[in-house]
Write a structure and sequence with these properties.
By secondary structure, the chain is α+β, with helices and mostly antiparallel strands. It is built from 10 helices and 12 strands. The strands form 3 sheets. Strands 1, 2, 3, 4 and 5 form a 5-stranded antiparallel beta sheet that branches. Helix 5 runs parallel beside helix 8 (248-265), helix 8 (248-265) packs across helix 10 (281-289) and helix 9 packs across helix 10 (281-289).
Length: 293
């Protein structure tokens, strides 16, 4: 009788959420947590699995995920089944679209100007897990320019933005100066008692709008600023602005086109940011805008 151990494809296991540890036959099981939202009942199940099959500890990843370390190879099926019964899936790794991260946006945050719950969930439902890519794709959605989720560090990042507009025809300005006071970017100055907005310096965070007691500063346009090419790791770089003030539906369309262009143009193991560095942003933008379904 052969005593040879079965051959294990570690790359295939990693792609499915089982990440090899340095300890023999032990793995960390990565759990998919879209938008960082998990129920209390699911957390209890994760804790139970960590105690029953691991060593009673869990690891919180930098991308709002959960990993259960010290899971033995023989327990994969049981852990996967119990996670599924709790409504939890394994997290994707490797050269594919990863789970979408997001801040709490307008649902909870007083600074939020973009509905991150809506956009991030649609992005995750439409693109998560797409494989056959030259390299991984990470996405982050943040509800305002404070950028708590660090969208510019992702291959694709989305920031909720609002452009302010001053008009005394809407409501009478009382020259209180609150708009100038709350504008940390110095985009607003009171001239002859009235606010003048320099959009070239504006951060589009809507602080001036929410602070105006008369409503004479109001939203002119609202949407998402899309950034591309961010990455971390050994050669980090900040993503560049691709398009401003896009609608939710346009953001979804751009995302699909960016992934298609990336699939077509990038070399093996080349990140999106590296591709843009190589061919130039203008050439990449032209390719994205001319993608055909």
């Amino acid at each position: 009788m052969s005593t040879d151990k079965p051959v294990v494809n570690l790359e295939l296991l990693k792609a499915g959420g089982f990440i090899k540890q340095k300890q023999p036959e032990l793995f960390s099981v990565r759990i998919r947590i879209p938008l960082g939202n998990v129920s209390s009942a699911q957390l209890l199940k994760v804790a139970e699995l960590a105690s029953d099959y691991g060593r009673g500890v869990v690891h919180l990843t930098v991308r709002q995920g959960i990993e259960i370390p010290h899971i033995h190879f023989k327990d994969f099926n049981a852990v996967t089944a119990e996670l599924g019964n709790a409504g939890l899936d394994l997290g994707a790794c490797g050269s594919r679209v990863r789970v979408v991260t997001a801040c709490q946006g307008t649902a909870l945050c007083p600074h939020g100007v973009g509905d991150t719950e809506s956009l991030a969930r649609k992005l995750d439902e439409r693109f998560y897990g797409q494989s056959g890519l030259p390299h991984k794709i990470k996405m982050g959605v943040t509800g305002c320019p404070n950028s708590c989720i660090k969208p510019q560090e992702n291959d694709l990042g989305y920031i909720g933005v609002v452009e302010p507009f001053f008009s005394e025809t809407e409501a009478e300005c009382i020259s209180c100066g609150l708009c100038e006071e709350v504008c940390t970017s110095g985009a607003i100055s009171l001239i002859d008692g009235k606010p003048v907005i320099d959009l070239s310096r504006c951060s589009y965070d809507a602080k001036c709008i929410s602070s105006c007691p008369t409503g004479s500063i109001s939203p002119h346009r609202q949407g998402w600023n899309v950034f591309v090419g961010g990455k971390w790791g050994k050669e980090p770089q900040i993503g560049v602005l691709f398009k401003e003030f896009v609608s939710e539906e346009e953001a979804l369309q751009i995302t699909g086109n960016v992934i298609a262009a990336f699939r077509k143009l990038a070399g093996e193991r080349e990140r999106l940011g590296s591709l843009i560095n190589r061919i130039g942003l203008d050439a990449f933008r032209n390719e994205v805008l001319h993608v055909r379904d």
